[in-house]
Design a protein that fits this description.
Keywords: Hydrolase, Signal. With 333 residues, this protein is mainly beta. The protein has three domains: 126 residues, no CATH class; 58 residues, Resuscitation-promoting factor rpfb (Resuscitation-promoting factor rpfb fold), CATH 2.20.230.10; 109 residues, Distorted Sandwich (Glucose Permease (Domain IIA)). The chain has four helices and 25 strands. The strands form six sheets. Strands 13, 16, 18, 19, 20, 22, 24 and 25 form an eight-stranded antiparallel β-sheet that branches. A five-stranded antiparallel β-sheet has the order 2-5-7-10-11. Strands 4-3-1-6 form a four-stranded antiparallel β-sheet. Strand 3 and strand 4 form a beta hairpin. Helix 2 crosses helix 4. The longest helix has 18 residues. The protein is elongated, with a radius of gyration of 37 Å. Bound molecules: zinc ion. Zinc ion binds next to loops.
Length: 333
């Protein structure tokens, strides 16, 4: 009976630590990495069919094989070689199941090449690399708000800032060529950013009759004005529109009320500076909540026909110290 025995070398549970500790400074220690092997690399088993035997590959040859693996891996890697701080190669769980092992008749170079080539598909070893990388990052300008007494409420002037940039040095970890994390070790600002400054008017627009409000919906027809109507006071203006049309905040403020009230239907009240409030009524839907900080032009609801209303429209009020005034005098056209 002629039994063909294929002698193969198994790199059993090898763990090689090609690590070196950088002795300060920013320069790479790539030159030293491949010369520094700590611990006992164990290329120490032979596999004949399903049985494993000790091999005669000695520790020095094992070290050479694994060192070559590291060398080949670095050659194939897209990482800038000058940045490598350390490399660490370990067999993983999958390695134990790995059947296609290495022939003892191969040279050290050939064995190493097989390990690297076959690992591309099988991933039975994990190569952990740490690289010291330098990059430039943009510093976005901060936004600073300045209140201007000589500008009316609702007026905004923006002075655009400028981005700066910084140099960032990070220790980046790669496992099998994929970035798995990083630690920033140094940051140096090269050019400072310049703040964007937003000048915001705070002057009271009421007395000077300044149109400071944005039209609170889109299009529509004014169907009822502010003032006496059928013998009683109409505290706002009505804009006839289609159900579902957008309703916008007329100016920056904070939502104070947002609920259904008899008469008004679904109603939103927004509080603004200078004791001014705006009211939006008969809404179909709310698109904001109490406490929300809204900007001029933000969507807050939809036109509807809720409450005491004979057709879809927006009832819009402006109140100063709680007293309704004619909104039309303050809406920008
Ligand atoms: Zn009305």
């Amino acid at each position: 009976m002629n039994i063909s025995i294929k002698k193969t070398l198994m790199v059993s549970a090898f763990s090689i630590c090609l690590t070196t500790i950088l002795g300060g400074g920013l320069e790479s220690s790539y030159g030293n990495i491949l010369l520094t092997i700590e611990g006992e690399p164990t290329v120490s088993a032979m596999k004949v069919e399903d049985k494993t035997y000790k091999t005669d590959v000695d520790i020095d040859a094992s070290k050479e094989i694994l060192r070559k693996v590291g060398e080949l891996y670095i050659e194939d890697s897209v990482v800038n070689k000058d940045t490598i701080l350390s490399i660490d190669i370990k067999a993983n769980d999958k390695y134990e199941e790995y059947k296609n092992v290495i022939s003892t008749s191969d040279s050290i170079e050939e064995i190493a090449e097989k390990i690297v080539d076959e690992n591309n598909d099988e991933k039975y070893i994990d190569v952990n690399m740490k690289c010291k990388e330098t990059r430039q990052e943009t510093i976005e300008p901060s936004i600073k708000t300045v209140q201007k007494e000589d500008m009316y409420m609702g007026e905004i002037l923006k002075e655009e800032g400028m981005s700066g940039y910084k140099e960032v040095v990070a220790n980046v970890n790669y496992t099998n060529g994929i970035k798995t994390g990083e630690e920033i070790v140094q940051e140096k600002t090269i050019v400072n950013s310049k703040d964007t400054v937003v000048y915001k008017g705070v002057k009271d627009p009421i007395e000077d009759k300044v149109a400071f409000l944005e039209y609170p919906t889109e299009g529509g027809t004014i169907t009822s004005l502010f003032g006496k109507r059928w013998g009683r006071m109409h505290n706002g203006m009505d804009i006839g529109n289609d159900t579902g049309d957008p309703v916008y905040s007329a100016i920056d403020g904070v939502v104070k009320e947002c609920y259904y009230e008899n008469g008004y239907g679904n109603k939103i009240v927004i509080e603004h500076d200078n004791n001014i409030m705006t009211v939006y009524a008969h809404l179909n839907e709310f698109k904001t909540t109490v406490g929300a900080e809204v900007k001029k032009g933000d969507l807050i609801g939809n036109v509807g026909n809720t409450g005491n209303s004979t057709g879809p429209h927006l009832h819009f009020e402006v109140r100063v110290n709680g007293v309704p005034i004619n909104p039309q005098e303050y809406i920008q056209v």
